[in-house]
Amino acid sequence: xxxxxxxxxxGGVAKTISAINIxxxxxxxxxxxxxxxxxDKQGNTSKFFGLHSYDAPSIADVLIxxxxxxxxxxxKCTAYDNLHLLPANMNLLRANKEILLDVSRPxxxxxxxxxxxxxxxxxxxxxxxxxxxxxxxxxxxxxxxAADDVLIPIKIDQFAFDGLDQLREQVExxxxxxxxxxxxxxxxxxxxxxxxxxxxxxYLSGNxxxxxxxxxxxxxxxxxxxxxxxxPLPAYSKNCTAARDYEALVNEYLQNVTGISTNERGxx
Length: 268
Fold this sequence. Notes:
By secondary structure, the protein is α/β, with parallel strands linked by helices. The protein has helices at residues 15-30, 44-48, 59-64, 70-74, 91-101, 110-120, 138-146, 164-174, 195-207, 221-229, 233-236, 241-258, and strands spanning 2-6, 34-39, 76-77, 83-86, 127-132, 149-155, 182-189. The radius of gyration is 18 Å and the shape is globular.
């Protein structure tokens, strides 16, 4: 299972929308079995799929309980084939505090161990996609320790590059626990064809020392509409610009990972 952690320390950059649509595209367009992990106490990914609840286990329980069966008990089916969800709620705030206070066992590797134990038990996924809060709390550090690849969504504005150095440093620090982690790339969200975005795109490509995807996610009102409908973009409006962009981004990512274009793989 390849674990993709979607993170940016700046809010309002479409992390949740990106996680949802990347996960859906991997499942619906590429036939992959995907686990989407909500790792934000706001639980917006869980709310999107109508699976937000305090009556069932969530990622908070996975992080604080020792029982390796907790993760399997917390998994939820979405309305879409091959796409499952590990939900979150405000209990994650408490879990982050409890992890810091519990020095009886490792703090940074709990999510990784839970995912590993799930695979050993036969719960197999091709990808796990983690939607992280704009923070470097213990749950986010757990997400990085569990990750193979880090994707960084960036909205071009005055504060677009705030926190990138700190995030890069944290990824490097994570190598102590996870030697395979890499920043697969940054990608621009909410892109508009204007001078600000053009200049920001040019700066991003040459000055931050991180890989940048060629695909940009264009701004469209359809994104806001999907948050009310609770339907991923390619299912809600498959021909809208952002839906096509997310499919192109996933294709570019898969080519980056495998070195093989989706056309060469049989047009997945």
